[in-house]
Amino acid sequence: LAGTVPEEPRCTVERADASLTYSLFLQRFAFSRPVILGGVTDNSAFRALCTREKLLAAFGPFPVRLSTANTYSYRKVDVPFQEYVEHLLKPQDPARLGSDTLYFFGDNNFTEWGPLFQHYVPPPFRIPGTSPAYSFGIAGSGSGVPFHWHGPGYSEVIFGRKRWFLYPPDRAPHFHPNESTLAWLQHTYPTLPPAQRPLECTLRPGEVLYFPDRWWHATLNLDTSVFISTFLG
């Protein structure tokens, strides 16, 4: 579905391609700054399993756990996957608070979703002392999660486009934890002097963003999007 959110063509996150070695990744990015990796994996087979029709056929009657789309994501709601796709997967209302917006991401039942994840090819670089955990999501245009932070990880877009905003750990952004990313983009972002703007970029299918430990980040789906993250805990 076409997105209702304009894309910012400017990208201030460094990019790297398949020539990036593991030692260079550790030296330049793993502990210091985010990077967008292109061509490091081929997930065309996984993408073919993530169409609306295939996902509804495989998981339609199964319950999925939705979280509120605010910084703390306290409230959880269980609904059948088909109900989420057909009734709740819609563009974000800019006036709706994060606590009133339900978002499907992360709370995956691995007994049911595990066979799908077996087809996903994760990014090749690991952080020493961590182990990977997948979080799979689907969300409508204009949706996203406001600024928050956690351990390091990767995020890959399977369908759609996803805009990211990032700040280093020592530069906490100004935001309201219950305001949607779309509202923040409309109201707060235009007031920021250039020096106070976040690192940002729009990911397209096949691109992978790596973010280091404790980096603040907010996300905004420009289209109805399918995406998967690999958290390194």
Could you explain how this protein is built, in words?
The chain has one domain: Cupin (Jelly Rolls, Sandwich), CATH 2.60.120. 19% of the residues lie in helices and 28% in strands. The protein contains six helices and twelve strands. The strands form two sheets. A nine-stranded mixed sheet has the order 1-2-10-7-12-6-5-3-4. Helix 1 (22-30) links the parallel strand 1 (15-16) and strand 2. The longest helix is centred in the first third of the chain and has 9 residues, at 22-30. One of its GO terms (cellular component) is nucleus.
Distance between the termini: 34 Å
Helix content: 10-25%
CATH superfamily: Cupin
CATH topology: Jelly Rolls
**What form results from the Cα inertia axes?**
globular
